[in-house]
């Protein structure tokens, strides 16, 4: 796509990384400042008329809401609608797959702070997106080219 790419894991605080490395799952209190910082990055890209891709485990509906609306999502629990701080237009791509497929991929990952043992906590926290959220669901069991093609179709047809 030629869009700027951000890996949300690069923006975790040292405390969050240390906690995960120790096998301790993050909670909402740990994640909200991180999600607000990610929202700010996406807002900056939008204000520069730049499209961006953010790889992020936005596991809960509330987390996705923070990515779209920033801190106002927490303060008012309502999406921003108008003005300078209007909600961002984000297409969420829910990569869905069996735990064993994801576990095999995590086992191959090297040099990452999140151990395989935290995968269960991720699934326990997961609230898959549903209407009226702006999302598509794609099976992780498809090939990478198939996944990319589905994402491109959704972006350019919507």
UniProtKB/TrEMBL annotation:
UniProt GO cellular component terms: cytoplasm
Annotated metabolic or biological route of this protein: Carbohydrate acid metabolism; D-gluconate degradation
UniProt keywords (A-Z) are: ATP-binding, Kinase, Nucleotide-binding, Transferase
Q: Name one GO molecular function term.
A: gluconokinase activity
**Which residues, if any, are the signal sequence?**
none
According to the UniProt entry, what is the EC number of this protein? 2.7.1.12
Tell me the Gene Ontology biological-process terms attached to this UniProt entry: carbohydrate metabolic process
UniProt-listed CDD domains: GntK (cd02021)
- Look up the domain of life of the source: Eukaryota
**SUPFAM superfamilies xrefs:** P-loop containing nucleoside triphosphate hydrolases
| Reaction catalyzed | D-gluconate + ATP = 6-phospho-D-gluconate + ADP + H(+)
UniProt record similarity statement: Belongs to the gluconokinase GntK/GntV family.
PANTHER family per record: GLUCONOKINASE-RELATED
According to UniProt, the name of this protein is Gluconokinase
Q: Which organism is it from?
A: Chauna torquata (Southern screamer)
